[in-house]
C-alpha cells in the first residue's frame, strides 16, 4: 500500500509549485496559509456530503500495459482493466466510490476524477494532493459523489491521458424521471500509442522543434489565417486546431475502419452521453439523419436546445437526446480542423451498414457549442458581485514549446488564492491563436454570457484571442488544479492552482 500522503510532502510540493506557503514569511503582502489536502476542513466537508448509510461501491482498477484490438489492428498501450475504453463505473448521487488503483505500469501514476466535486485528498494530482502511486504499489480512492451526471476518470501524470488510461463515470440522479428508453455512451479519443509515436515521444518532438514544428500547424499559420485564426462559422475553433496529427481517431476504442455498432430499437428516444477523452482534438459530432437535443453539459442540466451537430472540446461532456429512426446510421465525430474522423454505427434495423466516408449534412448544419446554452433553473448560481476576480492570461511561447498562464509555467506558477464561502470570478484571456479547453478540478463554475447566465461547467473552451468569464462559489477546501485539457499544453506548463487559504 502507498503510505499516506505526509504533511511534509505537501509542503514541499506547495513550496516548489505554489510559492504561497514557502514565501509567506518574507513577502510584503501576507498571503493566507494554504488549506492543504490533509487539512481538517477537507474531511469536515466530506462528512457533510456523506449521508448516513450511503452505499459504498467498490471497484478495482488495474493500470497495466496491454495489447488492445483496434479493429483488425492491435496496439500495445496502457489501459485500466485490460480494455479500451476503460471500465464504465456507475453509481448514484450520494453514494461512495471506493476505487483501488493497482499500478502495474513501469512508471508512477494516479487517477483524477474529472468533474467530481470530491474531497481534495482524493483528487489524484501527484505532488499536490497525493504522492504518485509507484510501480507495483496501490492506492485506494474513497469519496462521495455528490452530483449526478456524465463524468470520466483518467491518469494525471505526464501525458498518460493520451494513452488508454481513461474510463467513463456515470452518476445517476435518483430523482430524475429519465424520459428516454436507452443510453449510449460515446467516448471520443485521438490515438497514436502503439500505432505511431508514443505520447512521450510526441511531447519530446514538440519540445525539440518548438512551436514552428507543430505538424506544420504552428501559431504563425493561425495568425495569417485572418478571421479564420480567431474562429468563424467554418472554423469555430480558429485556424489552428491542434499540435498533433494522429494516425487514428476512435469512438469507443474503434477507428472508422471497424466501427462499433451501437444497437437500439426503432423510434426509441436515446440519451447520448458523449465524453471527449482526447488529448489534442476537439470533435464535431453528428448522427446522420437525426437532430440532437442537448440536455446537459459537464454533468449539469441546461435548458434543452436542438441542433444538428455538437462541438466537444477535450475534457468536455455533453448529454443529448435523439429520437431514432429505423435503420443503420453513421455517427460521425470529425476531428475538428484535422481532416479526419472517428465513427460508429447506430443501428435500429437490419439494413446494410451505411457508408462511413460520406459527410452527413448535419455536420454543416446548426452547430451547438457551450456558448449558446442556458443553465436549467435549479443549477443557476444567480448573479452576485464576486468577492474577488482572478485573471488568467493564456499564452504560448513562440520559440520553445511552452504554454503559460499569466506568463508562467506551472513550476513557477503563483497560486490563485480564494477563501471558503466566496463568490469568485475567473477571467480567461486567450492571447494565443489556439483554443484552450480550461478545466477546474473539484468545482463546477457558471459561464457568463455577457450579463446572461451560461451553463454550469468544469471545462470551458476559450477560443483564440477571446475572453471567457466564469463564476463559482468556493465550498470545497483544498488545492485545485486549473489547466488546459490539451494534455501537451498542460504538460508544457499551462496549469496553475486555485488555492484555498485560511
Ligand atoms: Cu481531466 Cu486535471 O484533468
Ligand atoms: Cu491549451
Describe the protein in words.
The protein has helices spanning 7-17, 40-49, 199-209, 219-224, 487-491, and strands at residues 56-69, 74-80, 89-92, 96-103, 111-114, 138-144, 149-155, 166-172, 182-191, 248-251, 261-263, 269-276, 283-287, 292-297, 300-307, 309-312, 317-323, 328-335, 340-347, 367-368, 388-397, 402-405, 416-418, 423-430, 436-440, 445-449, 452-457, 459-462, 467-473, 479-484, 495-500. The protein is mainly beta and 502 residues long. A hairpin with a 4-residue loop joins strand 21 and strand 22. It is globular. The chain starts with 6 loop residues before the first helix and ends with a strand. 52% of the residues are buried. Copper (II) ion binds at residues 403, 436, 484, 486, 489, 494.
> Roughly what fraction of the amino acids lie in strands?
35-45%
Query: How much helix, percentage-wise, in residues?
Result: under 10%
What class would the helix/strand composition place it in? mainly beta
Shape: globular
Assembly state of the chains shown: single chain
In the sheet with the most strands, the strands line up as 10-9-12-17-14-15
Q: Cofactors and ligands present? A: CU-O-CU linkage, copper (II) ion
Number of helices: 5
- Tally the beta strands: 31
Which descriptors would you attach to this protein?
502 residues; mainly beta; 31 strands; 9% helix; binds CU-O-CU linkage; binds copper (II) ion
